[in-house]
Amino acid sequence: MSGNPRRVVFGSDHAGYEMKRFLIEVVAGMKIEAEDLGAHGTSSVDYPDYAEAVAKRISNGTADVGVLVCGTGIGMDITANKFPGVRAALLYDDTTARCARMHNDANIAVFGGRTMTPQDAARRMRVFLEEPYEGERHNARLDKIRAIEKKNGK
Ligand code: RB5
Asked: Would the pTM count as exceeding 0.90?
């Protein structure tokens, strides 16, 4: 992801649905296009299905940034990071939101709908969408992640 994104793909399960809808409103206010890949309500669903839908889009290059929300964020994070090229980060505080971009060039922001306030998540998402990747010394580290993916057949 380079520069401010023009489009963000969103996914959630039932536990993250309300927070996701809130974050979509915030993104719309930033003049960024939002695409919601589900879930589309609060009936119980399985988070891996929605993590897969968003992570696939990042992995195949048809989107450059995603946002995922489940109850804790953990299930979404675990699933999304199975996809090559995906660097999904659970943004549990503001420093983490900044560093996930500056140091890790993270391309999916993950939130916990049951563990964070919508206001905290929105502030961290804004930071995540606006903060540039620093490059330099971090490039070699990201190359090592890519090498690990290759070694493991991803
Ligand atoms: C759903 O009850 C819950 O397990 C899910 O939203 C998430 O927190 C999993 O990591």
From this structure: yes
